[in-house]
Sequence to fold (221 residues):
Amino acid sequence: MQEAFPISPPLLYALAGLLIIGGGALLWLAPRLSPNRRLEGAASWMGALFGGVVMLSGLALGVLAYLRQQQPEIVQPPGVVGRPAPELAFRLVDTDELRTLADYRGKVILLNLWATWCSPCLAEIPELNRFQQAYRDQGVVVIMISDESRQTILEFTKERPLVAVSGYLPENTRWPPPYNRVEQARPTTFVIDRDGIIRETWPGAANFAQFEAAVLPYLEE
Fold:
């Protein structure tokens, strides 16, 4: 699925700011187009009207950027979706036991790659917890893996408990492809079906409804 609007949110915010500033400048100049420095005459009113439209356009663009950042579209990168999920080894934060994705074969896996310093990741945690609680008994397992140290995650979860399976990469381990996508966008999420096939993947935080839309079709198979 291709993105409907390819411009990144930071660029949208920058464009919105320029429009708002430009519109404000036009509103400031509009009264000065008349000899009495008041809104009178066609030129002054047209300038004010155009300035207002430009400012409103900037505000609308800012709202669009915010909504796009909050609800990223699911993307289907070629060469990843529809193929077996490469093995990923990690250690459980609670027990330090070694695990792999193969240990959860037979369940639909929502694999979330995150970090404690990532603001969108933190906003997503309550949604992930809620989703795991709602669908645990139906064959869903949420696995959250960070490349931070075990101690860092343990300290974090004292105040923000994770309902999901919580893991971390073993020491001196790097993200293997395609999981290294998380190095460009965090969080990054993968949906892996009961047979170990990657069915969905997307960058950025999602919400409960998005998790349902991405995962439930594979529970029914």
Summary: Helices lie at 9-29, 42-70, 119-135, 150-157, 208-219. Strands lie at 89-92, 98-100, 108-114, 140-146, 165-168, 188-192, 198-203.
